[in-house]
Design a protein that fits this description.
Length: about 110
């Protein structure tokens, strides 16, 4: 079934499973959902965990080229860079998940 959009001023017939957006004519509140389906306000739990950087290197958002041997400092810095960026991505995903759950929890679903 295609998404149906109604103004709230119309009298319409919908069936269970219909996807609809309805705007209340009095309050202007939009109700979005699937007729007869309860809202689920919890996205899947995060599965990634922050990495512990024990490399001893300094993160600077650049992975340096390594040539020859004895470049322990550069190698450690590369690991630190990668760990810092992965940890930043994990934090970003957690923030997005929190915002998504908040939006879903506040959505008005038609039951």
């Amino acid at each position: 079934m295609a998404l149906q959009v109604f103004s709230g001023l119309e009298t319409v017939s919908v069936a269970a499973g219909d996807k609809v957006i309805v705007q209340d004519a009095t309050t202007g509140v939009l109700q979005v959902g699937v007729v007869g389906v309860a809202a689920t306000a919890d996205a899947a739990a995060a599965t990634a965990a922050a990495l512990t950087d024990s490399s001893g290197g300094s993160a600077d958002a650049t992975v340096a080229a390594i040539s020859g041997s004895g470049a322990d400092s550069d190698i450690n810095n590369n690991f630190a860079d990668v760990a810092a960026q992965i940890n930043a991505l994990i934090t970003d995903v957690a923030d997005i998940r929190t915002q998504l759950n908040a939006l879903l929890a506040e959505a008005h679903f038609i039951l």
